[in-house]
Give the backbone structure.
Amino acid sequence: MGDVVRWAAFSCVLVPVVLVGYGTSLAGAGGAALGLAAVTGVCRVLLRQSERCAARQLAEQSGGHRGRHSRTGTGAHRGVRYGSESTPVD
């Protein structure tokens, strides 16, 4: 992911320079730079989220050790009885 972000940052600098070189106003080039920076930021967040999700799914599929308690039980905790609608009974 690091290379993708570096190239995106490079583009955020390069594109406005090229636009000014071709006669676009500084305000227009600045707006393009801000837009590219915003898109780059959103894409970076989405990439990180996707990587975390993929890592979590890989860990679940590999059957990694999750500690002493498993999630396959009934869900009742020690010392607490549950009624018919999974609400604690006094």
